[in-house]
Amino acid sequence: MNLANRGAIWGLTILAFFTIVFTFVELNQPYESPEDAQSRFELHIPPLYTILMVSATYIVFKWNKKLHLFAGPLFILLGGFWYLWIFRTFTTGWVMMQGLVGLLISIIICFILMIFHLFTIRKRTR
């Protein structure tokens, strides 16, 4: 994996960790208004989504060497789906939207990295 992939993966991992911790700390605070009670901790494991995530993770790790340059963007996309899984599994209410925003950010960065890698491959072949 090249430096651009590693930097993006580490940066997004640190950002995701801090947003998860800050969100869960905020949810642990006492409610100030009835609207605050809409978003709360609630454990509900989506079984099909969990099975799909575990199998997709296994496939990406198994094909890591074959994917070469595009393994980084796929790991970022997979991380976005795991981020969504965390919010879908442990929270309920409007805070679940934060998981969707994290997935959207990972899709955008994955798209940018793929374009970057396609241009570098094209530049090398010339």
From TrEMBL:
The chain crosses the membrane at residues 7-25, 45-61, 68-87, 99-121. It comes from the Bacteria. Keywords: Membrane, Transmembrane, Transmembrane helix. This is Uncharacterized protein. It comes from Fictibacillus nanhaiensis.
